[in-house]
Design goal:
Protein name: Isoprenyl transferase
CATH architecture of the domain at 36-161 and 209-258: 3-Layer(aba) Sandwich
Number of helices: 9
CATH superfamily of the domain at 36-161 and 209-258: Decaprenyl diphosphate synthase-like
Radius of gyration: 19 Å
CATH topology of the domain at 36-161 and 209-258: Undecaprenyl pyrophosphate synthetase
CATH class of the domain at 36-161 and 209-258: Alpha Beta
Order of helices and strands: EHEHHEHEHEHHHEEH
Strand content: 5-15%
Structural class: alpha/beta
Active site: 45, 93
Largest sheet: 7 strands, parallel
Pfam families: Prenyltransf
Family: Belongs to the UPP synthase family. Z-FPP synthase subfamily.
Cofactor: Mg(2+)
Shape: globular
Number of strands: 7
């Protein structure tokens, strides 16, 4: 996002069904293939508000949101995205009502296991699994291990994740590594640079996200990929996550392709 330009809220246009399909196909065909982001981060926001709009409990929204994930990953594969990062549970979410949190964690665990069971995507679990119930952490690790040899779209599952928490974890990992080598703090301080942090992030070895999408109309990152999103483009969609459509995804890609990415140069 260029300087002095505020993020743009994206209105949702409801087209008659026949026109919708035609519009979606034309939109997909118009995307320049050399301007597809390699890595897309998605903040899956609005499940509870979606459920509330129907007079349903929060768990209903969380389940519908979980069902939407496979669609998003399929759309990403179709256009050639290489990495998708899904923010499914933040460290802030862990302070929610215990009953709702237990249901949410159970839904997320089932969703991640289902993604692994397809054998289509290579999963990487991002976050501090120590903050989760032991059985949940074990299921997450097992899902990641089952997909270790999958070739194709890489899917980062951010669970128990916070951007500040990730950076703190990266620094701790860096300090432990150098302590094991016998490096003194003075020596480390003299050679330390930003690359050292990048090597210890949850996303190490992956490209930084070029595009970050947040649903539900909220216009903030909330701590998502704080380090990695330094040069990301942001797209804020009005739709709640369970209502997010392929056309919304394509519009986000179109917006990304139309931007001039100077990256500070």
């Amino acid at each position: 996002m260029s300087a002095c330009r505020l993020p743009r809220k994206v209105s949702r246009v409801r087209l008659p069904h026949p026109l919708y399909g035609l519009y979606e196909r034309r939109l997909a065909a118009s995307l320049p293939r050399d301007a597809i982001p390699r890595h897309v981060g998605v903040i899956l926001d609005g499940n509870r508000r979606w459920a509330r709009s129907f007079g349903e409990p929060a768990s209903h929204g969380h389940r519908r949101g979980a069902d939407k994930i496979t669609e998003l990953l399929t759309w990403s594969e179709e256009v050639g995205v290489e990495v998708v990062t899904l923010w499914m549970l933040s460290t802030d979410n862990l302070a929610r009502d215990p009953e709702e949190l237990a249901e949410l964690v159970s839904i997320i665990t089932d969703a991640v296991c289902s993604l692994a069971d397809t054998g289509r995507w290579r999963l990487r679990v991002m976050g501090d699994l120590r903050l989760l119930p032991a059985e949940t952490a074990q299921a997450m690790r097992a899902a990641q291990e089952r997909t270790r040899d999958v070739v194709g779209l890489h899917v980062n599952v951010a669970v128990g994740y916070g951007g500040r928490h990730e950076i703190a974890d990266a620094v701790r990992s860096l300090l432990r590594e150098h302590a094991a080598r016998g490096t003194s703090l003075v020596e480390l301080a003299e050679t330390f640079d930003v690359a050292h942090i990048a090597e210890h992030l949850y996303t190490k070895g992956q490209p930084d996200p070029e595009l970050v999408i947040r649903t539900s109309g909220e216009q903030r990152l909330g701590g998502f990929l704080l380090w990695q999103s330094a040069h990301s483009e942001f797209y804020f969609c009005e739709a709640y996550w369970p209502d997010f459509r392929r056309v919304d995804f394509l519009r986000a890609l179109r917006s990304f392709a139309a931007r001039e990415r100077r990256l500070g140069r």
